[in-house]
Amino acid sequence: MLWSSLYHQDDIYSASVAAVPELVTIAAERRELAPESLFLAASIELRRHQTGASELPPSLTTAYERSLEIALALASDLAEHAPDADGKLAIADLVFRGEYTRAQTVLDADGDEQNEQ
Is 108 in contact with 94 (CB distance < 8 Å)? Predict the structure, then answer.
């Protein structure tokens, strides 16, 4: 339900961007929820850098950018040390490093593999 409220059919909303710091906090405090929380935050961040996405509201800039720094540290650590069978942490790590094209390529390849099955 959270996914469809914050990221629905490649659309993000002002609430989506506002939720990113909270998603990162959840990931930091509840490691069992970290892969999904970081992946959703990364998906929002990735979409924010695509054509047609809204600008980051100035009132959210500081908290949002700080949360991305924390998300990068979390995603990097977890991608290296935690189970990641579906690659969510690896993709989040790429996004939070600013490697948007590589992250999108991995997502597209995963989608192609699922469609072939």
Answer: no
What number of other Cβ atoms are within 10 A of residue 95's Cβ? Answer: 30
pTM: 0.89
Q: Read off the tokens for 77.
A: 């650590």
Cα 56 from chain centroid (whole Å): 15
Token pair of 42, please?
């990364």
Nearest to 38 by CA among 102, 110, 86, 101: 86
* DSSP tag of 63: H
What distance lies between CA 1 and its chain's CA centroid?
16
> Taking phi first (over 0 means left), then psi (-120 to 50 degrees means alpha), and beta for anything else, what does residue 7 get?
beta
pLDDT tens track for 54-68: 788 899 999 999 999
pLDDT at residue 116 greater than cutoff 50: no
| Nearest alpha carbon to residue 57 among 101, 91, 13 | 13
87-110 tens-digit pLDDT: 899 999 999 999 999 999 998 887
